[in-house]
Design goal:
The protein has two helices and 32 strands. It is mostly beta strands. Among the domains are: about 150 residues, no CATH class; about 160 residues, no CATH class. The strands form four sheets. Strands 15, 16, 18, 22, 23, 24, 25, 26, 27, 28, 29, 30, 31 and 32 form a 14-stranded mixed beta sheet that branches. Strands 3, 4, 6, 14, 17, 19, 20 and 21 form an eight-stranded mixed beta sheet that branches. The N terminus is likely disordered.
């Protein structure tokens, strides 16, 4: 007889599983109720990089016999890269290492039991009486299929009390991620060792909370480090060091390294700070040891600056030598410096800047966010927070004349409208000036920022509009 169910996928989650030792059932010991074992880690140091990668160094003292022996290291990362493991200690050499990552769980127990005989214990909810049956596990793919005597049964998710009893735990299932190393020791006794390895699943990002005061022309910035641990292992009381920068060598394995668009940097800084460096990276050590729990986010403050000079600006970029039929909004940007004098006075690791302003009642309100790349000290920053409602730009190609087979003259008009009751200045840029483009005429003197970009500052009175005209001599 086959017992059908519409909720086979939930069957395992409704089971209470108990283990048995040496063939004797122990129904009172359920896997879900076992107390967590104390960590086997020693003195742990964790170096965490921006690209979802960490270096773990774990100092443990081993008691070893002379000659060859197998030593186990539980509580390593479940995502450990075994090929990066090193174990050092006086008088020992590594012969072989294995990483057992098949972890003990109800699902894994049932998968390993396919083809084996288990015990099904059912409890009568009315009387509390238990009945036991021997069952052979035929399949554990999306549901549990059993052979009990001459019948085939599917475990049902019907809410009735049922548990599965196993005679033993399979040898290749581990309660915790475990690295086993076969070593050859010169002598017996305690040996101080250091285990180190790389692991994905442990990374950090920077987040910034900025409160902009337009009237005062200042900005308060709080910087937070956010640690994310998805390694499957908790690192207890770890000495933690954060490395800011894009470390190479991991992008093929873990995807994009996290490099960001540096459009938020108007001018890169040239000031040196006091933070410790490692090669071309900056180091951010946490002031105190901390426990980085698995499946946890932890935040630590690393920057707190009050009343740094800042201003609001409007930006508009025309990306090619063409017009737009419909006026487009200018971008709103908050501009400030990371300089030691008159700025934030620090290097800024890559992350997200979230900007707030106080409303008429004095309550801070969110006005936008943007991402920044790794930013040196002394940089001029422009954080775009969104599009302006009342400031728009229309671009018109007024005239395009062919001068020769390879030369053209293009006359452009940029109309900036301002529906605000205060004057504004729009930083207007024209991109796409490739080759030997010349500006033969311009109603406002602009600045050539790069070979293919020129910028103008266009003032617009309150409730008014203003025109900028420019003529370009181009090759095509």
């Amino acid at each position: 007889m086959v017992v059908a169910t519409q909720r086979l996928g939930n069957a395992m989650r409704r089971l209470t599983l108990a283990l048995a030792a040496a063939g004797a059932a122990l129904p009172g010991i359920a896997i879900a109720q076992t107390a967590p074992a104390p960590s086997a880690q020693g003195d742990v140091s964790v170096t965490i990089y921006n690209n979802n990668l960490a270096l773990v160094q774990d100092a443990r003292t081993l008691s070893v016999p002379q000659g060859r022996s197998r030593q186990e290291f539980p509580d390593v990362s479940a995502q450990i890269r075994p090929e990066t493991v090193t174990l050092s200690g006086p008088g020992i050499g590594i012969v072989e290492q294995n990483f057992d990552y098949d972890l003990l769980s109800p699902d894994k127990l049932m998968e390993k039991a396919v083809g084996q005989v288990i015990t099904i214990v059912r409890t009568n909810p009315a009387t509390g009486a238990e009945t036991r049956e021997q069952a052979k596990v035929l399949a554990a793919n999306g549901g549990i299929v059993l052979q009990i005597g001459n019948r085939i049964e599917v475990l049902r998710d019907d809410g009735l009390p049922v548990r599965v009893v196993f005679d033993k735990v399979p040898e290749n299932l581990r309660a915790r991620p475990t690295l086993s190393v076969t070593i050859d020791a010169e002598r017996n006794g305690p040996v101080p060792t250091r285990l180190s390895y790389l692991t994905p699943g442990l990374g950090w990002t920077s987040d910034y909370v900025a409160l902009f005061d337009e009237k005062a022309g200042t900005i308060d910035v709080q910087g937070w480090v956010t640690l994310n641990n998805n390694t499957g292992t908790t690192f207890a009381n770890a000495d933690t060091l954060l490395v800011a920068g894009n470390v190479g060598g991991g992008q093929n394995r873990f995807g994009r390294m996290g490099a960001m668009d540096d459009a938020s940097i108007e001018q890169a800084g040239t000031e040196s700070g006091t933070r410790e460096r490692l090669g071309d990276y900056y180091l951010y050590p946490l002031a105190e040891r901390t426990t980085i729990a698995n499946a946890q986010q932890k935040q630590v403050s690393f920057l707190d600056v009050k009343a740094s000079p800042a201003r609001k600006a409007y930006e508009f970029t025309n990306g090619w030598m063409g017009g737009n039929d419909t006026p487009r909004s200018a971008a709103t940007a908050i501009k400030f410096s990371t300089s030691r004098n008159g700025g934030l006075g620090d290097q800024l690791p890559a992350g997200t800047v979230r900007v707030y302003m106080r409303d008429a009642r004095g309550d801070p309100q969110f006005i936008g966010e943007n991402r920044i790349g790794h930013t040196p000290m002394g940089s001029s920053m422009s954080i775009r927070t969104g599009e302006a409602f009342d400031v728009k730009v229309k671009v018109v190609v007024e005239e395009r004349t062919k001068l020769s087979n390879r030369r053209w003259r293009t006359r452009m008009r940029y109309t900036v409208s301002n529906a605000r009751d205060t004057p504004v200045t729009v930083d207007l840029a024209q991109d796409g000036l490739w080759g030997d483009v010349k500006i033969t005429e311009q109603s406002i003197t602009g600045e050539r920022i790069s070979a293919d970009r020129v910028e103008w500052k266009v003032p617009v009175a309150a409730n008014a509009s203003a025109d900028l005209t420019a003529t370009f001599d181009t090759r095509y």
